[in-house]
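WARN retry 2 of 3 for item q-0093 after timeout on previous attempt; input resubmitted unchanged.
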Amino acid sequence: MIELSKQQKAESVEKLKAYFRDEMDYDIGQFEAEFLLDFFAKDLGTYYYNQGLQDAAALIDNKLEDIQHSLMELEKPTV
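OK item q-0093 returned
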């Protein structure tokens, strides 16, 4: 489960409450917003976390290919 700091959790709860109010014209309370946030973190957060890892791995792979190409350009002929 993704762990948020107290400040991050408070800000996220306020964002959830604002979203429901502004986009769905529905007011949810503190408890409901915290419950939803916990659900997202526990049950959905791993999808975003894993995607972030995959994106980071792809970025590293691309950078390593660039480095390997640059190193090959530095090779001197042996003949």
